[in-house]
Each structure stands twice: as structure tokens, then as C-alpha cells.
Amino acid sequence: MKIVVSVEDAGVIDEAVKYSPTFIEIRLDRMAGDLLDQVRVIREKTAIPLIATLRSREEGGRFVGNADLWTRIIGPITRYVDFVDVEARYRDHAPLIKSQGVQILASLHTSEMPTPPELGKIESMLRSYGDIPKIVVKPRTTDDLLALVAFTHQAQKPICTSIMGAEFRYARAILPLFGSEFMFCHAGTPTAEGQYHIQEARQIADLLK
Ligand SMILES: O=C1C[C@@](O)(C(=O)O)C[C@@H](O)[C@@H]1O
């Protein structure tokens, strides 16, 4: 099980790396000050692969600029990271990011629960510009969750699926067992409702090996 620890503060890196995350996601939209400098500090602290995420407000984050501002912020950061999370609204900038040797985590976050055919269309759209599609949805019933697990199991790999909200937070540990590439967690401050702390995530991953 690949663990992604999502951080908004370079100060938690030393604690986070104790639990051997596979990736560290830097949530640029939840940080203040000189973003490039903070990414550089994190890069100097660890060799663990980094994901840069500048999450739009429309998809649950705090970034409110347009695509041009998004790419002006992300551009200088690509040299320090291994992946960039690119929402469909920013997809036009994906080729330039890839040309800089960075992989694309093509993401979509919705507070709805798409049907299986809709999930397939979303997956195809994300794969059209990204290396790994990431689909985050909000199941409302156990049947919704079972449909997401089945979709994940049957989908082309790699793929990342996850859920929003606390009601089905246990799905964060289950979806990777059926093929989801990552389990997102936090290192003290959740960047999304329902995340487990990385210490818990490591325990879960080790117990479910
Ligand atoms: O897309 C995701 C998943 C996530 O929203 C979660 O639910 O853990 C956390 C985000 O930081 C990350 O970019």
C-alpha cells in the first residue's frame, strides 16, 4: 500500500518521514509565504518523491486564481518535485509540465457520486492528459462505496480512487486493496476530512500487507 502524506508545513517533514511515506504531497494552496522557497526546503530535507498540489477552491482547495496564475506558481516548482497534481481545468498546461520531466496526477474531486459509466468517462478524460488518474468522490450509501470499489478493481492501472467526508473514511484503507494506487493521510493537520494520521496509515498498511 503506497502512502501519500499530505502536508501544508515544511516543519512536519522530519516527523512524517519517520513513517516511510511513499510520497509527500505539498499542498501549496494551504501554505503562505514564499512557496518556491518552502518547496526547496522540503526537497533538501528528504529524497522521498514529492507531489505538488495547488488545489482549486472549486475542487475543495483554497486556490482562487485562474489557470495562468496557477501555471506561474507551479512552473518554477516543477524542478523540485516528481509529480504535479493537475485538475482538468488546468489540463492545457500538462504538456509543458511533462516536458520538464514531471509526471501528472490528473485529478477530479466531486461531492457527487458518479455512476460507474460516468466514472469510466472521467477516467478516460483524466488519462487523456495524465499519467495517473485520481478520482475523489462522495459515496452516500454502502452500495455507492461498493460500486466505487468494483470500479477501482476493474479499472486500468495505475489509478487512484478515494472518498470525501468522514462517513466512509475506512474506504481510504480498503480502496488500495482493490487497486487504488495511493492512500492519502496527514502528518498532524488533515488536508481533507476523514484522513488518518500517517502513524495510523503506516499501521494499517503494515497490518494489511
Ligand atoms: O486529492 C487529494 C485527496 C485528498 O483530498 C484526501 O481526501 O485525502 C487530500 C488532498 O490533499 C489530495 O490532493
From TrEMBL:
**What pathway is this protein a component of?**
Metabolic intermediate biosynthesis; chorismate biosynthesis; chorismate from D-erythrose 4-phosphate and phosphoenolpyruvate: step 3/7
Question: Which residues does UniProt mark as catalytic?
Answer: 109, 134
Catalytic activity, EC: 4.2.1.10
Q: Which InterPro entries match?
A: Aldolase_TIM (IPR013785), DHquinase_I (IPR001381), Type-I_3-dehydroquinase (IPR050146)
What does the entry give for GO biological process? 3,4-dihydroxybenzoate biosynthetic process; amino acid biosynthetic process; aromatic amino acid family biosynthetic process; chorismate biosynthetic process
Q: Where does 3-dehydroquinate bind?
A: 6, 25-27, 55, 172, 191, 195
Q: Which GO terms describe its molecular function?
A: 3-dehydroquinate dehydratase activity
Q: Pfam families recorded for this chain? A: DHquinase_I
Name the chemical reaction catalysed here: 3-dehydroquinate = 3-dehydroshikimate + H2O
Domain of life of the organism in this record?
Archaea
- Reply yes or no: does the keyword Phosphoprotein apply: no
Its assembly, as annotated, is: Homodimer.
The UniProt entry's sequence similarity note says: Belongs to the type-I 3-dehydroquinase family.
What job does the chain carry out? Involved in the third step of the chorismate pathway, which leads to the biosynthesis of aromatic amino acids. Catalyzes the cis-dehydration of 3-dehydroquinate (DHQ) and introduces the first double bond of the aromatic ring to yield 3-dehydroshikimate.
Name this protein carries in UniProt? 3-dehydroquinate dehydratase
Native organism is Methanoculleus bourgensis (strain ATCC 43281 / DSM 3045 / OCM 15 / MS2) (Methanogenium bourgense)
Q: What does UniProt list as this organism's lineage?
A: Archaea, Methanobacteriati, Methanobacteriota, Stenosarchaea group, Methanomicrobia
